[in-house]
């Protein structure tokens, strides 16, 4: 399902960017910041306007050599997260029931550091529910978890401001306002900087270096923060749960990391991360079997023939990667959890290259995937190199809350290695 912007448009399963999260026709009664944002956001959701936006921003976000530069700041944030874990675990070395919220804090701190060059203070002690970082997390979660409700169900909000719509708009107003404050601060820092070292530029600064229109940088930063918290956090919840409940595979991850990092205190480099092939294969396998984003879709812009079926223009076509990733037809021995299948030496195993597409595919593929991969690899390298992860409660079921992840308290026990 290649996402070319000519034949198909992104549909609503994820493909989520801030400009798509404000639906197009605002009820007239809604008088809010949203309306100031709409003119330069909503019309950039699809087709040529989206393509033009994406073309202007995607280079620094997807270029491997640019992404690699962020390993040191991401490792620093992750080290602070590990120190926080040390503080919040109880006398039995167990993490609190709301550990998933701690993972969200780590994710926001990472994306704040990368996109805005700012430490947002998410990992500080005793953040209250009213603290700014917690409110950003709650707002981003609310936005992603309710967008499907508004976009896929009957759109009454187009005619009257329904309670959910009004709450959604208030939530987005708050999100935009708070993030704009940080983006403005990043812009002022850039202006005041005397000499600019290319390696030290934040993503927003990189965009502004080539792009004269500051709105583009605003939209990108908002997109990355909005989409870059809950997605990766739920993916990490799933990966840690699988590690904790698959002792044999966790030991393989540990021994690989121990070999790569005999001294766990040495600074992590991209070379270390590149060598951790089994760790990466483990993440890939979790995504195959339990894809965090269950699928994505496109609205056909022209009649098409797909697998022999004639599909008319306008139909929404869904690619359910959670389903295809688990089909024997495309993946040999699909029922077995086998990270090795992603390692090169295992070429004999049937594995269709499109069976598992956790980040989507084509021109609209996840914009944050390289950062997501790097952040997850750094987290595992630090956590699993230093701790054995255990889980001593009833098995958790997976549930879709827009993202697909284990549903329940992640009270992991951490045993120091
Ligand atoms: C492991 C975590 C993540 C997963 C599984 C994931 C998955 C996806 C998927 C499936 C799409 C839709 C792709 C398509 O339609 O073909 C998407 C889009 C997107 N993702 Fe991610 N994502 C993750 C993390 C992130 C992060 C950390 C960021 C930001 C730093 C991010 C930013 C975006 C953006 C901006 C889009 C919209 C792209 C566009 O429409 O042009 N994602 N993601």
From TrEMBL:
Residues 1-20 are annotated as: Disordered. Pfam families: p450 (PF00067). The keyword Amino-acid biosynthesis does not apply. Heme binds at residue 366. Its cofactor is heme. GO terms for molecular function: heme binding; iron ion binding; monooxygenase activity; oxidoreductase activity, acting on paired donors, with incorporation or reduction of molecular oxygen. Residues 1-17 have a biased composition (Polar residues). PANTHER family: CYTOCHROME P450. This is Probable cytochrome P450 301a1, mitochondrial isoform X2. It comes from Fopius arisanus.
